[in-house]
Design brief:
The chain has a three-stranded antiparallel beta sheet with strand order 1-3-2, with no helix packed on it. The chain is of the alpha+beta class and about 475 residues long.
């Protein structure tokens, strides 16, 4: 309310006219801030200390939140004359709780609790923290700066409380985890966190030959970004698309800081991340280097042919489903040389042999010999489904065989719904309009009311499969 009447309002007006020393004298005389904690509040703190989850103590940073959750009102220690939380716990809770310094953080512990000692004791890092660090660095194998490491760790796993692990900074934590990570200091004094087991001298790898002052954390972050960008494009991208994609995802490339004149020079320098090749059309394509498979690639190039290679790998179930879908559409089989093109047209993406550990398409087909067979033709064999498996696979793996097929339209009145170009028009047959309205009602009932939130596996989506989608009129089409 906005009224000026009432005892509290009048009192506030009077107090606003006096000096601070007078207000201090008034507070002292009224005993409002006597720096004494009520007995009921001490009993509440004792109840918290008796809880099993706090038998080893309660960190001061968590104390106000736990108090509020347990007793449903905030811990208002300032109204009793205490300056801060530490002052309240040190001088107001005598006999109910004690303070103990655990590492670099204060804890509230029960009375008589055995004091912790930092001398002569090894710090135990929680296993989940170790696993989180390993996972974070496996996704960023070229290292992270301290700032980027803390930011990404918090984004993925929550706050990393170094003080609870008795570490003053991230470098000290890395020294306690030699099996997980290593901290390397570059020339500028910036520390970069790298995965354990790597070469700490790799900071010069991939740099420009004429530049010895490239910061390791900058180079590592650029390499990680390139790795993440190209992982979703196993077939590679053109140089122009690569530059635009990087800028769209991660911002401007620090070419000057890396000692490179342009994007092409950078890609040719970081040979441990990407490979530059020229396509048949003359465009430069940037593709990802398969880590750990460089030797196998060299051996394949030396033989000059991948038909006799016997590389083995693991084929994911979703890829097997896609292969079966391709061959289901081509019952007579597909020539081995033409299979990648047909696979791309059907599934919508390239089949990446190296990603699954295969040296050739023939070795991949051998891996699924129980469901796919290859003809005896040595020049260009044909791949087809095993006949005894066709019907079984169709029901157990593919589900209902729905594909868009060409249909003849009988002469009659039509309505032009939309036009993409003079050669491409969307028409609605008037005779079928009632059926269309009934189908839209059924789709509304099925998708919006009965199956809302149901997820479709990506392996069940193929090119040419009819789907339902919400249009701008919020109706299913």
């Amino acid at each position: 309310r906005d009224t000026r009447e009432g005892f509290n309002r009048r009192t506030g007006e009077v107090l606003s006219r006096v000096r601070g020393d007078i207000i201090h004298k008034i507070e002292k005389m009224t005993g409002r801030k006597t720096r004494k904690v009520p007995e009921f509040m001490k009993k509440q703190v004792e109840l918290l200390m008796d809880m099993e989850m706090f038998e080893t103590g309660l960190f001061l940073t968590e104390f106000p939140q736990v108090y509020n959750q347990e007793f449903a009102y905030p811990l208002d220690y300032q109204c009793y004359g205490f300056h801060n939380l530490e002052d309240f716990c040190f001088h107001g809770l005598q006999g109910s709780a004690e303070m103990d310094l655990d590492g670099f953080s204060w804890k509230l512990v029960p009375v008589g609790h055995k004091r912790s000692s930092m001398s002569g004791q090894s710090t135990e890092i929680p296993p989940d923290v170790k696993e989180n660090i390993k996972k974070l660095l496996s996704e960023n194998p070229f290292g992270l700066s301290v700032h980027s490491f803390m930011r990404r760790y918090e984004s993925c796993f929550g706050q990393l409380n170094l003080r609870q692990m008795k570490c003053k900074d991230l470098v000290e934590l890395c020294c306690l985890l030699p099996d997980c990570c290593v901290a390397v200091e570059s020339g500028g004094g910036e520390v970069t966190v790298l995965p354990a087991g790597g070469d700490s001298d790799s900071d010069s790898k991939g740099r420009d030959k004429n530049c010895d002052t490239v910061p390791l954390h900058v180079l590592g972050e650029v390499k990680n970004n390139i790795l993440h960008l190209l992982q979703s494009h196993p077939a590679g991208v053109t140089l122009n698309c690569f530059a635009k994609g990087y800028e769209g995802y991660y911002g401007h490339l620090p070419l000057a800081q890396l000692g490179c004149g342009d994007v092409m020079e950078l890609c040719r320098a970081v040979t441990d991340v990407c490979l530059v090749r020229q396509s048949e059309t003359g465009q430069y394509v940037i593709s990802l280097v398969r880590r750990g498979r460089a030797d196998a690639k060299v051996d394949t190039d030396k033989t000059g042919s991948d038909e006799d290679s016997d590389g083995s790998g693991t084929l994911p179930g979703c890829v097997l489903v896609d292969i079966v879908r391709v061959l289901q559409r081509h019952r007579d089989g597909v020539k081995l040389s033409n299979f990648p093109k047909v696979f791309l047209e059907t599934v919508g993406q390239n089949i990446d042999l190296g990603k699954f550990g295969f040296d050739s398409l023939k070795s991949l087909v051998k891996n699924v010999s129980g469901q796919v067979e290859v003809s005896d033709c040595k020049k260009d064999p044909v791949i087809r489904l095993v006949k005894s498996k066709v019907e079984k696979l169709k029901q157990s793996v593919l589900g209902v065989d729905l594909r868009m097929t060409e249909q003849e339209i009988e002469p009659g009145l039509v309505t032009v719904v939309s036009g993409v170009s003079p050669d491409l028009l969307c028409l609605q047959v008037e005779e079928k309009r009632k059926e269309l309205e009934e189908m839209e009602e059924m789709m509304e009932q099925f998708y919006t009311r009965e199956n809302v939130g149901q997820k479709i596996l990506a392996s069940n989506l193929v090119v040419g499969l009819p789907v339902a989608a919400l249009h701008i009129d919020m109706a299913w089409h």
